[in-house]
Amino acid sequence: MHKPTNIVSYSIRHYIGIFREETLLERLEALLSSVKTHDFQVLFLEPHAKDGGVFVHFNYNASDPENALVSIENDLKQEALKHGGIPSWTGLGRGNIWLVKGRPWREDMNRYASTVVKLAFEGPDIQEESLYDILRPYGRIQDVSSPVPVPAGTFRSSTVTFQRVRSATIARNVIHGFKFVDSSAPTRLHAIYQPPIQAHAARDWITGHPRIVLPIIVFLLGTLTYTIFDPVRAIMVEGKILNWFNYREFSLYKWMRANTLDRLSFVSTSSSGDMPAEDVWKERKDAQIALRSYLSDLPSTIAFIHGPQGSGKSRMLHGLLRETNRKALVIDCTELNKASSDARLVAGLAQQTGYWPIFTFLNSMNSMIDLASVGIIGQKAGFSSSLNEQLKQILEVVGTALKGVSRSLRTDAQRKVKADQDSEERKAQDISMRERIRNGTWHDGRLDCVAGNGVMCELGVGDELMTGLDSEAGDDIGSMALAKTEKGEEDELARKKRSVEDIQAVTALPIVVIKNYAARGGANREELLSVLAQWAATLAENQIAHVIVMSDNRENSKLLARALPSKPLNSIALYDADASSALSFIRQRLHDAGTNIELTTDQTVCIGKLGGRASDLESLIHKVRSGQAVEEAVEDIIARGVGELRKNAFGEDLEDAKSLPWSREQAWIVLKLLSKQVEIPYYDLLLEFPFKGDELALRRMEHAELISINTRNGRPSTVRPGKPVLKYVFERVVNDSIFGATQDIWANEKVISSAENTVRACEQELLDLKDIAMAERSSLWGGKKASSERESYLFKKMASAETKIQTLEKQNIELKKVLRRGG
Q: Which residues touch 188 (CB under 8 Å, ≥6 apart)?
């Protein structure tokens, strides 16, 4: 075998053999040509690159060919032994010579050499003993299989397993096409390699044993997730909280910005204008104090900040976070509620928390696998997971990362405290050394090496002066007082150390902020809020992080209260500023912006229309700074509110109105009532037309910031506009004669339709009572008949409904005249 045997498609040994092929063939031809037995003569050499051998074509002259071939083979082997063996690509001379008994089949298919050779019988079967005798000379045989039944027209075969690939290669090339003659008819052998493992054997076994394979795959995937991906995800979340990946927090970036852009900037980068001044926003002081108190202690509950939209919840919290320099993780429910599918919701939560890597596309694939497994094994394989489980998995990893953040921050704080203590100790030692030098009691031990020890050490000091022992000498009373003083100092240091450790334990905790916590978007969003509530309760109870939940509505705290049943929520309310605080705030902000104006009485009245809502006050300040007059700015805010109200409360058209969670009639009645009154009784509004007990519509209006529902003794009490400026917006909308006439006509039509239904129902019941009255008899004492009393009641009800119909019909006639006049 002058070249290596190929057992795979690509092998470096094959190319080494090609490189040495020409030299090896020359040596082989020279070796063979030296044998002259029976006029042996080499005609040509035919390399077989695939199996690594050479077919030698030769001539000879003999009267007994069979014995002559045996003799030639033996002489060639002897000659090869004299020269150290047949030349080989390895240079070790391990090749040998074999007489080909069949017809060699030189092919270049992807059938590579293996230890298994399949022998097909073209003729009668050959017994195992005969096969063994034929093939054993080429190498040790491990097994010979018996022929098995095959389809008609196919040769029966046996499989022979050799111990070595080299033996199988020799047997295959020597025996292929060999005609074996037994007592019966002759049999021609066809030899081919057969892979030790059948094609698709593993696949067939896997598909044939799904009850075993699928649970194993689930286990392996779960193990892979928990051992590899989850730790990576926890590190990524921790990096997001600690700003590892935010280049703006890098020291090099800060230095470059401070020395380049900030020096060239002509605009003040102070953020003092972003926050309302403490002295002009008195309503926010209590909330800030309550929130600061919550953050200064270990958490045991959740802080729930609620207040109307635009009341400054986010601004207050961000200012407090900048002040305390605490690390925070913010989850915005508004962005999550915008997700159009569960996969986008999960991806959005992962993005906000820094959870990476995430494979949302696999969930749909896993669902398909589960459906297929139901048909295969009768039950789900457990690949897919519900939205609830996916959200919990993300938040569980985030909770683990929060623990890591706390440990990291606490370690950094302890390291800083230790460095400060070491610095103080070094300063104290320096002060003590200077004092001893000043008193002449300090001795430099390095001089001992020069001056010697013992008595001669005095030379290191010079003249004998007062020593440290002399300066520390004193009476027993002084020593006792000194000991007491030192003990007191040690106790004080221990107390300070405990206090510092307690402060470190609190300040090292990260803060989790859940913004815009509100039920909007369907059942899946309710599920999101429930999962967030459970997770927030777990963080607070286990003191993993301070949890702050912000919402526009106090009613949204119910889910949090259910998740934390044993402890009350730390509820912090933010309200609109009163008139004096609002004016002070506007003056202060305008003064900070360099706009000093004196507000007149009329301007003060105009500002009063905006109330104390922070968002509206900020809008007013921006418009005034842009050059608008106060009156124009307020009018612009109200006019903009009118357009937004018509779109949000009534829809742009009838199709848009159908998607609103309330009817146009319900919105119109609320606007008309609140345009005339500061507040209206909740249950009086709820029980009358057009609500008729539809409490959900009122709640939806509250969520849309159209109204606010005030409570008393834990129950709804009154209904007010969603923010102060809406009172004047409502008036502007109601005073629009065309719009008002249109809405009144539609509302009246609904009332008329309801009244007509009442009349028809009464008429039908009166017809039924006529038959009943004929069979009814008067009581013995002359009492009224029940049917007569019912008739009287129905007539009164019909009259009332008919009067209402006529009145509203007349109103509609007048309203239509308004529409014809155009206002």
A: 121, 122, 123, 177, 178, 179, 180
CA distance 321 to 312: 14
Cα separation, 31 vs 28, in Å, equals 5
pLDDT of residue 813: 94
CA neighbours within 13 Å on the CB side: how many for 461? 20
pLDDT digits (tens, 9 = 90+) for 375-394: 666 665 555 678 899 999 99
Chain segment 782-791, per-residue pLDDT in tens: 445 678 888 8
Euclidean distance between CA atoms 179 and 123, whole angstroms: 10
The pLDDT of residue 569: 93
| CB-count exposure of residue 500 (10 Å: 0-12, 13-18, 19+) | middle
Q: Is 639 helix (H, G, I), strand (E, B) or coil?
A: helix
CB 48 within 8 A of CB 6: no
The per-residue pLDDT for range 87-133, each reduced to its tens digit, is 887 766 567 899 999 998 888 888 888 999 999 999 999 999 999 99
Can you tell me which residue has the tokens 């958490």? Answer: 299
CA–CA dist 77, 570 (Å, integer): 99
* Predicted pLDDT of residue 12: 67
CA proximity to 103, closest of 215, 2, 191:
191
> Before 151, cis peptide (omega within 30)?
no
**Contacts with 278 (C-beta within 8 Å, 6 or more apart), sequence order:** 284, 285, 288
Calpha distance 809→7 (Å, rounded): 99
pTM above 0.70, yes or no: no
CA-based torsion, 758, 763, 766, 768: positive or negative: negative
What totals of helices (H) and strands (E) does the chain contain, helices first?
32, 15
Report the distance separating Cα 664 and Cα 687, nearest Å. 17
Dump pLDDT digits (tens) for 412-460. Answer: 888 888 888 889 889 988 898 888 888 877 766 666 555 555 554 554 4
Q: What is the distance between the terminal CA atoms of the chain, rounded to a whole angstrom?
A: 109
DSSP conformation class of 146: P
Domain 116-196: assigned CATH number: 3.30.70.330
Question: CA-CA distance, 183 to 180, in Å (whole number)?
Answer: 10
Q: Given its phi and psi angles, is residue 312 left (phi above 0), alpha (psi -120 to 50 degrees) or beta?
A: left
Domain boundaries, the chain: 12-82, 116-196, 577-735, 737-776+785-823
- By the 8 A CB rule, do 544 and 298 touch? no
Tokens of 286: 């209590």
Grouping H, G, I as helix, E, B as strand and the rest as coil, residue 721 is strand
